[in-house]
């Protein structure tokens, strides 16, 4: 915690800067919803990247995770890997070869 007026002023300035960055990312997200990339998948990827950046700033600065012990980063790495695996499972589920080959229709 801040013990002097200078440290408090510096902390407030950092919070204002992070708030402006988050506001800019939010504006970029809204503008992204009006812009159409060549494929809809690129829109989703760019939106997820912006959301990840915003979540990282909130977690690191406002939740003070940037001052935590190394264990929290191991837990967060596991969480990110687990979330990525869930996203990949969702993507792979739409490409099920049994569904596209007509296997389900021919056996019913």
TrEMBL record:
Q: Which regions span the lipid bilayer?
A: 12-35, 41-63, 75-93
Q: How does it sit in the membrane?
A: Multi-pass membrane protein
- What domain of life does the UniProt record list for this protein's source? Bacteria
Q: Which InterPro entries match?
A: Cyt_c_oxidase_su4_prok (IPR005171)
The record's annotation in Pfam families points to: COX4_pro
Q: Where in the cell is it found?
A: Cell membrane
Q: Could you tell me the keywords of this UniProt record?
A: Cell membrane, Membrane, Transmembrane, Transmembrane helix
Any Gene Ontology CC annotation: plasma membrane
Where does the signal peptide begin and end?
none
Q: What is this protein called?
A: Cytochrome C oxidase subunit IV
Q: What is the lineage of its organism?
A: Bacteria, Pseudomonadati, Verrucomicrobiota, Verrucomicrobiia, Verrucomicrobiales
């Amino acid at each position: 915690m801040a013990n002097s007026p200078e440290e408090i002023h510096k902390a407030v300035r950092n919070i204002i800067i992070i708030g402006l960055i988050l506001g800019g990312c939010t504006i970029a997200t809204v503008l992204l919803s009006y812009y159409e990339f060549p494929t809809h998948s690129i829109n989703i990827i760019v939106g997820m990247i912006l959301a990840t950046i915003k979540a990282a700033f909130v977690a690191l600065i406002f939740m003070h995770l940037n001052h935590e012990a190394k264990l929290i980063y191991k837990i967060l790495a596991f969480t990110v890997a687990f979330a990525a695996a869930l996203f990949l499972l969702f993507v792979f589920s739409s490409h099920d070869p049994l569904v596209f080959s007509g296997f389900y229709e021919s056996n019913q």
